[in-house]
Inverse folding.
């Protein structure tokens, strides 16, 4: 089941609110500084995420090696995007990994008679698409709009597409309301 929200949508397990598939992929680890909840712990979970993200229409047969490559890519994308937000230099190893994976074949896309789109491929095809999206974002004009969520425990990165560039949270429902409630309780002196 998919629920839509202002900045994206929620799957039953996964959240897509970052405004870019590569940032959503990096967001499959929640609260990196605190509890470190990893949503991609099995090859099956990776396959499910690829479908939920709209990269493939049917489950790809992902194995342990695919999962290991996916985790490497996810962490490289996260470090590159985070460095972009802080103005730190990129690690060459991360940049080269993303470039290498992006160089692979992408999912095939076909327009159906009903005006829908079919996306086919395997895990490597989908990872190449994620890496390509990361390159286009990190090397493109929107790179300065990558931000980290303003909620204390959230480490999600997102693309701020607001007109003024003043968005503070990855998602108002996930983090904005929680941060506002915590601030209100702190001002009132209540736990």
């Amino acid at each position: 089941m998919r629920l839509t929200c202002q900045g994206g949508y929620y799957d039953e397990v996964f959240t897509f609110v970052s405004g870019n598939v590569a940032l959503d992929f990096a967001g499959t680890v929640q609260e990196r500084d605190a509890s470190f909840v990893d949503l991609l712990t099995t090859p099956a979970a990776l396959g499910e995420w690829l479908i939920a993200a709209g990269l493939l229409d049917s489950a790809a047969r992902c194995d342990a090696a695919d999962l290991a490559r996916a985790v490497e890519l996810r962490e490289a994308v996260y470090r590159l995007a985070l460095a972009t937000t802080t103005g730190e230099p990129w690690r060459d190893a991360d940049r080269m990994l993303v470039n290498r994976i992006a160089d692979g074949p992408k999912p095939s896309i076909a327009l159906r008679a009903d005006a829908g789109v079919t996306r086919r491929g395997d895990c490597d095809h989908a990872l190449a698409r994620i890496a390509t999206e990361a390159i286009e974002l990190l090397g493109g004009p929107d790179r300065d709009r990558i931000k980290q969520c303003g909620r204390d425990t959230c480490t999600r990165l997102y693309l701020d597409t607001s007109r003024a560039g003043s968005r503070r949270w990855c998602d108002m429902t996930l983090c904005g309301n929680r941060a506002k409630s915590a601030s209100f309780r702190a001002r009132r002196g209540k736990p």
Summary: The two ends are 34 Å apart (CA to CA). The longest helix spans residues 64-86.
